[in-house]
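Here we describe the complex-level prediction in full. Unlike the single-chain runs in Section 2.1, the two entities below were treated as one system.
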Amino acid sequence: MQLISTLKPILGIVAAGTMLSACNSLSNSETQKKIEVTSLSVIDTYIQIAETNYQDSLSTAQALDKAVDAFLNAPTEATLTLTKQAWVAARAPYQQTEVYRFGNESVDNWEGKVNAWPLDEGLIDYVDANYGTESDENPFYNANIISNPTPTIGGKIIDAKSISKAFLSETLHEIDEVESNVATGYHVVEFLLWGQDLNGTNPGSGNRPATDDSLTDCTGGNCDRRRDYLKSATSLLVDDLQDMANSWKEEGESRLALQAKGDKGGLETILTGMGSLAYGELAGERIKLGLMLHDPEEEHDCFSDNTHWSHYYDAKGIKNIYLGEYKTSQGNLFTGLSLSDLVKQAQPELDAEMKAKLSTTESAMQLMVDQASEGNTFDVLIGEGNEQGNQIIRDIVNALVDQAKTTEKIIHTLALANIELEGSDSLDNPKSVLE
Amino acid sequence: MIYVVIHLKQLRKVLLSLLILSFSLSANERYPGGQHTHQKKLNRFSFSQPSPALSMEKKLDFKVGKAIFEKIWVFAPSSTTASDGLGPLYNARSCVRCHKGNGRGMLEGNNSSSPALFLRLSISPTTHKHRALLASGKVGFIPEPNYGKQLQTFAYPGGKSEGELEVNYSSILVGLLGGEVIEIKKPTYKINKLGYGPMHQNLLFSPRIAPPVIGLGLLEAIDEKDILSLTDPEDLDADGISGKANIVWDEINKESKLGRFGWKAGTPSLEQQNNAALSGDLGISSWLFPQHAGECTENQNDCLKQKHGNKRRDKPNVDRLEAPKVMTDLLLYYTRNIALAPTRNYDSPDRNKGKQLFNKAGCHKCHRPSFTTASNAEQGSLSNQTIWPYSDLLLHDMGQGLADGRPEFLANGKEWRTPPLWGIGLTKMVSGNTFYLHDGRARNLLEAILWHGGEAEASKQMIIEMTSEQRQQLIIFLESL
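The structure predicted for the assembly as a whole is:
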């Protein structure tokens, strides 16, 4: 089934062409060449992918919420495993939306509630002794809210008697204005399902027993409060994703904000997201840093050892919006007029180059995912002395940088400005890219 | 009519060529870092941009280096072996804690300890051995026997910090021509809660605030000869300005060398500066200063016995340091390649008048406007750059008002290195506040000027005697840097 019917082209002239191209596969349609691809139609596709992708993230988070209910109803290793699987499944569509974060202010402002990382997990629950007991940067470093209904921190008494959605989102999250006091979002749920990963760069993820949430055979203490935390955090995640899905619907805040930027502004937003995520964020902050220092702390989904998929789907999100397509978790394919079509119209060889770069990145990511399925997860691959593993990760960094370079060429070709790929300067003087 | 049009066209040509000519003559100062000047929007990240001369691959290294600069260290042992080893005694847990946005350190609260301001400690020599050591040129001062080279105000869990710094200010009123009276604040320092017994009776101390960390690679790339050629320690030209090179100990090459970095130019290279800061300020070991206990002295026994991050690495081919070489290399790359922001209000008449006044008052004799960096292939894009740091990197007697009375290598207790002025106009934008001079005592640029004495006394007097409008123009000029 194709979701073509949801596509509502804005320009009448383009309408027929859009439908036609959407009915055919994008790359081999002869008729497509004759269609004039406009910026507006590309922006419209981008919006529709956002709507579909956030909706998909919401649906999979709702499935996770149901799995949590089943787990709390009967906390066994089997139900815990099912819940973990639901969490991993929910990450796949969500990570593909990350490309929307850069450039769309409304998304960036909201994102901290659902995907903040890294976190000082001692704020939430018990931790290993090696975690340490205090931090002069964060008085809540070891607050352990689950075991302390009324902790006194920095002379203040915190009322944590009831662990509710409101308490997590309004009181605990980023308490004391410390960013690492992450009290909500995917990574909090992840920590509550898996527990700390104490294996360093050796294989293995967190190992929290299902009895941590048992009312009859409680381990880890305060299981009732831990259950409240897990349930509140999961349903809060659903609420927040609902907000963002709404934000991309007709008259939604994010959609209107993007449309208000106009043709050029809209394309700049799209390319900012593609370039910044690939270059500064993914290649730099999330991958190269951990690789060079062989530091498992730099692992993005560290409790579950799901980092490989997190990176894989980040890269896929970039590819999605370039090609104007999105495949939902149910397997439905959405397609529309894309940035690729627009670039092809301006300079076919540049479009071919970008497609090649995206595919190189995807292959490099696939190698990492394959390794992970054999037990060599991201933290193992970046380990000291693991030359082969390090090379796999290094290839990903190089592919992403290469892809970002072509993204810059596209920015130049489309005569766009005002773009900052995080960590990149050359855009201020677009000529320098082509020298 | 036609005739006039032709003339206008010709006139335009002449004007255009004049414009081009003037541009090529003086345009460089728009870009104080040469190629290493960014063109980004001005905001709190204005001192955090990579040099535009770097390739995309290299900018990624810059970004990784930046993450290390911002890394928050934890005590050993921890599960995060790449980030442990803090302390046992320390002033801050990360570089960025004191160098916020890579700008000047900020004073926090009224008179409590601010991590960005600490005390360097030493004693005046008491024995022959001390004197021989100082004469060898291998040490710049004799550390305080119990407390070492600086006062660390934080300690490991359960441990005692070395003390707390208390700062109190008294007012001094300075009258300017035209009747305006300016209040400047003179600090006095007190150390409370001494953790390791009384300080030595011959204690010398010097308060230091974190300086901005911009353009350091360029300052390092200036040919030593060009700096030395400016020295005039005996003031042979009788202009009242000496200019003395500090000759310090190069820990890397084990030789005496020109000092360039630090408030008294006590450090010869950026690599040494970075690693000394890791060791002294954070208690992190590196290849150059491998002591895992950082700055613990032999009299701080419990401190020396604390667990550390040095031997946590069990792989034989990796150096067993808290900050391995790969990490300090990235830190060096980052600190070398932070770009300068462009000059603002370059064409404003007030700025130009301010600049003339700056020169007329003789400020430029120490705050030397420009250098061209050495031609040296090893330095890559840092070579052959005409830069505008407004410093001669030499020591000058600044008078009793600013004196710390604590020598460091050849610098006596009244001498300070001319601090570069580039970026000074963006202090508030980057750091959120303004605290100038070596201890942050000056709340604005005029106060900082009024603290100048010694060799700068005559210049200061000229500024006091300027009209209020002229002083304003001078400040406009400084704020454009």
